[in-house]
Queue: 4 jobs
Job 1
Amino acid sequence: MPLLEDNLSAARRRIAAAATAAGRDPGDVTLVAVTKYARDEWVRGLLDLGVRDLGENRPQQLTERADLLPADPPVRWHQIGQVQRNKVRKLLPAAFLTHSVDSEKLLAAIDRIAGEEGLTPQVLLQANVSGEDSKSGFTPNELRALFAAGFDRFPHVRVRGLMTMAPAAESDEVDAVARPVFAGLRELRDELGGSERLPVLSMGMSGDFEPAIAEGATHVRLGSLLYAGLDAD
């Protein structure tokens, strides 16, 4: 699929340019290809093009695709959408990294089930930096309280970092609208322990990943950018 390859190459070039402009190593930014609306042949095409990090919004679709795709080459599956507690047990064995732990109740459920299953899942805590009612996640103050209390209560979970989403914005307003949110997440991460304690910052999607990289994103979640024009191809 030449168009898929062109789209992926363009995305990688933009990631590299944004990282270089920020004085960062482009290799420190992971492209997570979101497969929520992707056809199976597009997903296989991404694997053929060397993509190894795939993201799904729904746990059921993640586990189904993880079962269908070949084990070689290996895929690192990222759960990027909301997770209901009754989906945790099936999700954990398949997910390399869960980006969307948005409450202490969900974190406790993941820890309990991980202990029962003998797993040590890697998770990110979702922060609602923008304060929008439409977005889930911990408030900054809730995260401060959680970190102050410590994670001894959750011995089976590895908290690797933070995730956020910026408000939707028109293309000419992205930097003004999104960048302060991404800066806010980075500043919160620094306050809670810095990059050694929390090495992963998952922020930035197809419409706003460049300001996210400028503010320190280590993982950007791209979907529509990769599949543009494929329906007509």
Job 2
Amino acid sequence: MSIRATRREETRQKILEAARGILESGDFEEASTREIAKRAGVAEGTIFHHFSTKEELIISCVTTQLAEAIEKGLYTMDPEWCFVDKLMHVASYRFTQIGLHPTLWNVIMRQLTFAPRKGAVHDMMQRSGLIKAITDLIEEAQLSGELNPDLSPTLIRKSLMALFLFTIHEHMSTQNFDCEDMCATLRELIEVQTIGLWARKPECAA
């Protein structure tokens, strides 16, 4: 990487860190790009050299951390685990992030839920690698006979994401961000789908 590219990336990271700090405080909706720039130690116009809109900045904040959770989950996964166990392993890393920074994720979820640009949430999942990771696990399970191979992997993936988002909203509403509790909620929902709608009961670890 050239010196210029390195400096550009360093500036981008400073802006992301400043934005995350404001998100963590819960004041992102009121914060101006001028305030974000001040915290990052850059000119306000510099933000828009890296992020086209404030929404794009939020999505980039989420994408980076989501990608980290996915990478860790996939890297530490036992290939012998059943489909549900693999999904829960990846989800546990995500729930841990949310539990460590609940205020940050409350603001992020609110911002993304009401994002003015159609497809903003899908872009975040695509760029983080989440869509590919989940689709690969689904197709692997269909090949092994764990999931019905006649079902669309895309529809299964969309159903899974809906359950994941429901779990987050459910726990945000009660301010219960315990990782084990969140995993228990999601596992129950996924197993109902897997057993009742998608295939036979998986032989998961207790």
Job 3
Amino acid sequence: MAKALVGYRVASDPRLMLETVELRRRVRDLEYLVERLQRDNDQLREDLRQPATVAAGMPTIAG
């Protein structure tokens, strides 16, 4: 993805090289975040499919 942002040519300007490295790091971090959020979302969906698990963790009001 960073190649798409910067291009395929080799950057000789140190600023462009640094920016490319930073963009690659940022893309990697965002990809990791997306994976983690997808795992968390899958776990939440699984928890919702098990009503006993959800109900056990919810406080009740006894009157």
Job 4
Amino acid sequence: MADAATSSLYAPSALVLTVGAGESADTATVLRAVTLTCAPTPGGSHPDPAAACAELTATGGQFGALAADAPTRTCTRQWEPVTITGDGVWQGKRVSWSATYGNACELRSTMAEGAVFTF
């Protein structure tokens, strides 16, 4: 009974993160997906859950705030869209977020410094 009481003190933070080929979250073909749990402790199938949870905590769970202000590299202009998503619960509130980039280079250039979508 004590375990149930202790775990109920934490608002759940459990997400499914994906990287897909396509122009929208609704139609993209999922290429990679991981789970990320941040409360009460980091976990899931994400390769670095502690770093990913720390980044999301620093932004208040705002995925859009993870993007770099300016691209970190120059990319070609070929159109091979890549869509990333974050769906689940963050601190007890339902979240559903997606962003589409022109190609994988643009994705890496925008999210290069972060751990959340590095899987």
